[in-house]
Amino acid sequence: MSDKDHFVEIRHAQKSYGSLEVLKDISLNVERGQIVAIIGPSGSGKSTLLRAINDLDPLTGGEVWLDGVQVNKSLPHRQYEKHINEMRQQVGMVFQHFNLFPHMTARENVTMAPMLLKGLSKAEADKLAEEQLDKVGMLDRIDYYPSRLSGGQKQRVAIARALAMKPKLMLFDEATSALDPELVDEVNMVMKKLAEEHMTMIIVTHEMDFAASVCDRVLFMDQGVVVEEGPPSVVFKNPTKDRTREFLRKHLAGAA
Amino acid sequence: MGLDFTVVPGHLDIILLGCAWTIGIAVAAALLSFFGGIVFAVIALYAPWIIRQPFRLIEWVFMGTPLLLQLFLIYFGLVQIGIDLPAFVAGIIGLGLHFAVYNSELIQTAILSVDKGQMEAARTVGLSRGQALRKVVIPQAVRDVIPPIGNNMIALLKDSALVSVIGVSELTLSAQRAIGATYRPFEFYLVAAMFYYVINLCMEWVQRRIERRISISR
Ligand SMILES: Nc1ncnc2c1ncn2[C@@H]1O[C@H](COP(=O)(O)OP(=O)(O)O)[C@@H](O)[C@H]1O
Ligand SMILES: [Mg+2]
């Protein structure tokens, strides 16, 4: 069966807001343990594609499959809600603006969903919080509220919160774009660590160096289509399409 | 004849009993108005049309008519359809729902102004919309409206005197009874006023404590 061939499979994804077509027939496969970077100019549809994977922005056409199960299958409303909540538990997502729960400590941010959805006891949840916050180097701030954390620290807690659900797939939407430059590395380090543990990841990023160093594959998107894709060595060093070259030239010049 | 507070101690028992009733009714009605306000807000924002309509009617009745009339309606009116409530229960329900409607307005605005990313982050870890509202959105919305809700609660305390009209021996009615026995209105109304003031101070103290606890997480 073709739906079992790939770990993540996006088939003919199409998304419109009214007459604005944001995703134009995008297909993409990601294998287990692979790390894929999505780059491209602002407004090209990167976030929309990423958010379609856990149905945060539902597609208007096409299919998303994860580990042999269709994420956006058509079901009656109630059944769909149950199905999508189960699917989302398997997909961690990290946002540009962290979206930590401000009324909860780092520990509570991490334990809330596992306790509520997986019925973990307080003791099990505490152990989980310690494990996950240790992994992102935030164990010493376990009982801090987000308001007392720096941007980089917040994002590391947000990653721990996502990991606590033991996801099969992690999605990062410009996880470091809102950070002061000196705080970017601490978050990148955590993502690198996940890469070493063979976490399957799809990463929307503006950091070409980081993408080149951790990713197996790079997609360049523009105006709702994948213009070019391949290993970083090819896309960054020898892009075949003019649009890719132009974007990289501008972007690297802008970053320098 | 000047002021003579020596008549007060002899009737202090009835005043204190009235005080206890006022506190009991105000606290019960405050809790009802708080949790009722949350329920009304969620219904107003998220319930299907068919469920929203009866609540809009309730909202209209409690916002658009005098509280006095609402108390009469609940106490004397409901008897006619077979619902015979004790006066203090009718008072708690009337006051509670009246202020629930006002609290609901505040909470609705606050829910809508919680950052959209909060709901998204909660849904992303697998929470249903209901769970996300309960665990993430509503706690933040409620936090934001503690000060104005506190003001409503102080208005509630003052309006609790109205339940005397359906015969609940709360503070105001107790003062009147003491006055009936002594013909000393000034003294007993002043004493009652002092008790209201003290209860008020206690409520403000509770409110400040809640606000302080919340500010830790800001
Ligand atoms: N809710 C929405 N309504 C209308 N247009 C939207 C909405 N969300 C995104 N868009 C549009 O979709 C396009 C792609 O957006 P996005 O996926 O956020 O791009 P990127 O993440 O690559 O910057 C943009 O033109 C944006 O204006
Ligand atoms: Mg984006």
TrEMBL record, chain A:
It is found in: Cell membrane. It is a peripheral membrane protein. CDD domains: ABC_HisP_GlnQ. Residues 8-248 form the ABC transporter domain. GO terms for molecular function: ABC-type amino acid transporter activity; ATP binding; ATP hydrolysis activity. The keyword Iron does not apply. It comes from the Bacteria. Keywords: Amino-acid transport, ATP-binding, Cell membrane, Membrane, Nucleotide-binding, Transport. GO terms for cellular component: plasma membrane. SMART domains: AAA (SM00382). Belongs to the ABC transporter superfamily. This is Polar amino acid ABC transporter ATP-binding protein.
TrEMBL record, chain B:
The chain crosses the membrane at residues 20-45, 57-79, 85-102, 186-206. It is found in: Cell inner membrane; Cell membrane. It is a multi-pass membrane protein. InterPro entries: AA_ABC_transptr_permease_3TM (IPR010065), ArtM/GltK/GlnP/TcyL/YhdX-like (IPR043429), MetI-like (IPR000515), MetI-like_sf (IPR035906). Pfam families: BPD_transp_1. GO terms for molecular function: transmembrane transporter activity. It comes from the Bacteria. One of its GO terms (biological process) is amino acid transport. PROSITE patterns: ABC_TM1. Keywords: Amino-acid transport, Cell membrane, Membrane, Transmembrane, Transmembrane helix, Transport. Residues 19-207 form the ABC transmembrane type-1 domain. GO terms for cellular component: ATP-binding cassette (ABC) transporter complex. NCBIfam families: HEQRo_perm_3TM (TIGR01726). Belongs to the binding-protein-dependent transport system permease family. HisMQ subfamily. This is Amino acid ABC transporter permease. The lineage of its organism: Bacteria, Pseudomonadati, Pseudomonadota, Alphaproteobacteria, Rhodobacterales.
